[in-house]
Amino acid sequence: MRMPLNHYKAVFFDVGDTLMTIPAARVIIQQFLALRSLHREEDRIGELFTQAFRLFYYGKQLNPDEVCSPESDREFWMKLYRFILDELGADAEWSEDQIHHCCHELYDLFTTAEQYQLFDDVEESLEAISRMGLRMGIISNFAPSLKGILRDKGILHYFAPVIVSTEVGLEKPNPAIFRLALQESGLAASQVLYVGDHDQNDIWAPKQAGIDAVKILRYDYLTGNGIHSLMELLK
């Protein structure tokens, strides 16, 4: 059981599906494909996006020692987009080169700030935690565009350090990325609480580095114990 928030000196956060989300992913993909003459139902695209995310992200057995890079991040997401396109039957209408190019374009599209939205509780929670005198940081598996996205959303200034997997060559669930964050912050593991949505990346991994962790359940399909809003951290 985690301690009250004032027990800690800092709160570190995951980003995707913890602080922000892409609220209209199915619509974005549908419109993107329609502009390229691949017309599919929005609901079907949404089902496949959720299925792909469960399969490739939540269901993946990650290798803690795997080296992370901008290239490996792009490759991971291209596999996810390729799965969606295959299930949509894109190969019946497009060439292999068109499908490959489309996956690249989707990756570029979904790593831009315009597609992201902060969850409703984020700004209020960050401000409240800041007023308590706690430091905040980021540890995220993300494309190199993350800092720019956080800046665009007006919250980058809250965080130091900001540890991005594709910049440091380490990826959750490797506990070394959490040790790096502790080293950069000058904090002991016992002084930090970590918040994220993924059982292995955000609960198991920080605990291997001695960091307390709490799961945030932003979606109905997420299971286990945790919080549903960052405001619950303040109780």
Strand order of the largest sheet: 5-4-1-6-7
What are the segments in which pLDDT stays under 50 over at least 5 consecutive residues?
none
Rg calc: 18 Å
Into which percent range does the helicity of residues fall? Answer: 40-55%
What integer is the average pLDDT?
Answer: 93
Class from secondary-structure proportions: alpha/beta
Main sheet record: 5 strands, parallel
Helix/strand order, N-terminal first: EEHHHHEHEHEHHEHE
How far is it from the N-terminal to the C-terminal residue, by CA? 14 Å
- Oligomer type: single chain
Q: How would the global form be characterised?
A: elongated
Beta-sheet strand percentage?
5-15%
Helix tally equals 9
Q: Total number of β-strand segments? A: 7
Report on the architecture of this protein:
With 235 residues, the protein is of the alpha/beta class. It has 9 helices and 7 strands, in the order ββααααβαβαβααβαβ. The protein has helices spanning 25-34, 42-58, 70-87, 96-109, 122-131, 146-152, 165-168, 176-185, 199-208; strands at 10-13, 20-21, 117-118, 135-140, 159-164, 192-196, 212-215. The strands form 2 sheets. The protein has a 5-stranded parallel sheet with strand order 5-4-1-6-7, sandwiched between helices. It has a two-stranded antiparallel sheet with strand order 2-3. Helix 2 (42-58) packs across helix 3 and helix 3 (70-87) crosses helix 4 (96-109). It is elongated. The mean pLDDT is 93.
Could you give the topology of this structure?
Layout: E1 10-13, E2 20-21, H1 25-34, H2 42-58, H3 70-87, H4 96-109, E3 117-118, H5 122-131, E4 135-140, H6 146-152, E5 159-164, H7 165-168, H8 176-185, E6 192-196, H9 199-208, E7 212-215
Parallel strand pairs: 1-4, 1-6, 4-5, 6-7
Antiparallel strand pairs: 2-3
